[in-house]
Amino acid sequence: MAVSYQLVIDCRSPEPLARFWAAALHYVIAPAPTGFDSWDDFYRSIGVPEAELGIGFDRIEDPVGGGPRIWFQIVPEKKSIKNRIHIDVNASGDRDSSLDSRRERVEAEAERLVALGATRLHTMAEEGLDHYAVAMTDPEGNEFDIN
Q: First and final CA of the chain: distance in angstroms?
């Protein structure tokens, strides 16, 4: 039996990253747990110190419940090395589409995400290989791919 999980992304500023990834993945900002007006109210109820509250939205979720929740956790240090895990944003469609069609969809998604604050790193395409992807970073420098 599969278990539920959430993905945790270390960051310095949770709300901007939560908003970026919500838009990138077509997710929504996660509402506070039932019985609480805000996540801060919930955190207070479990003993989180006031000094650690007021950071804004730090969780997103798939509005239809298919994907994992994502929590953006504050850490004091800046990102300094390559991610050991990354998100692949699947924008190209299935293999029934031509490589040219998939390339167009990947490029359109890359442009959309650049407008949201992502940075394009490089294209991953090799002559004769039926694959096209774009490597990018989110606003805090976390790597991800669009394929």
A: 29
